Amino acid sequence: MKKVILAVAIALSACNVNAQTQAPDFADEATAKFEQQMTTVKAKESELRTLITGKEMTPELRVKADSVYAQYMKLYSDALGTLKSELESHREDAATAQLLVKYQRQLGLDYLAEYMKSYAHAEAEELASLRSTLAIEELKKPGSPLIDFELPDEAGTMHSLSEYVGHGRIVLVDFWASWCGPCRAEMPNVKAAYERFHDKGFDILGLSFDNTREAWLKGIADLGMTWPQLSDVQGWQSLAAKKYGVHAIPFTILFDKEGRIIATNLRGPALGNKLEELLGK
């Protein structure tokens, strides 16, 4: 009888060990699937960057760029859909935490905030940094005041955001980088809004996530941006990224005349529509 009990105990122990070792497997498989899809996404982004970098944005090129950008967004959306499907199926699994941490930039903080509300292991130690990031996300909601900090301009002179925001004009703070294909594709929309509404009380402040001063300055010139620009050329480690919890670009924050947030991430016609609402046609 003791031998039988011992055999059963060993079998149960083996089952538990197998369960523990197999638990992360879904995360590994989900990572492999997502990375495979992202290879195609990155190739399409590279195609977009090559198409528009250093070229004048003619109407013909605009049509081509819009088409490639739409393809890029579809591929990216499909990849995220695959990843989110895996996450939704494993809300009770501790191994899910590693995916939330690894892909928080791609998943987006709005999605993560909702997911964490019902994730069984939301208080796990490895998610401490994500919880802090989500707390910062609360500071980007409409009505929130400016988070002030200083960055250098092209000449190296330090400026605070409060020098540009909260002085009786609508201000778009645009987080971008010269290496970002989607940023370049979106820039004609941003320039059009600036040209249309600047005289009515609209300004833009660019905050670059470039890694070198040379690439940053070349990007400004190539894209024809005439509004103020600031950057510490620290890439994703930029102070701007840390202060506002920015994990993906292009990203924008629209501030009202008093320096409070109106909206975030307005792209394409959405920016022009909002400015029409605020400043008139």
Structural features, described:
55% of the residues lie in helices and 11% in strands. A five-stranded mixed sheet has the order 5-4-3-6-7, covered by helices on one side. With 281 residues, the protein is of the alpha/beta class. The chain has helices at 2-22, 25-52, 59-88, 96-102, 104-107, 109-118, 128-137, 181-197, 213-223, 239-244, 269-279, and strands spanning 150-152, 158-160, 170-176, 202-208, 229-230, 251-255, 261-264. The chain starts with a helix and ends with a helix. Helix 8 (181-197) runs parallel beside helix 11.
The class by helix and strand makeup works out as alpha/beta
Low-confidence stretches: 1-24
Number of helices: 11
Query: What is the overall silhouette?
Result: globular
- The averaged pLDDT comes out at 89
Largest sheet: 5 strands, mixed
Proportion of residues in β-strands: 5-15%
Q: Widest sheet: strand order?
A: 5-4-3-6-7
Roughly how many Å apart are the termini?
A: 88 Å
Oligomer: single chain
Radius of gyration: 23 Å
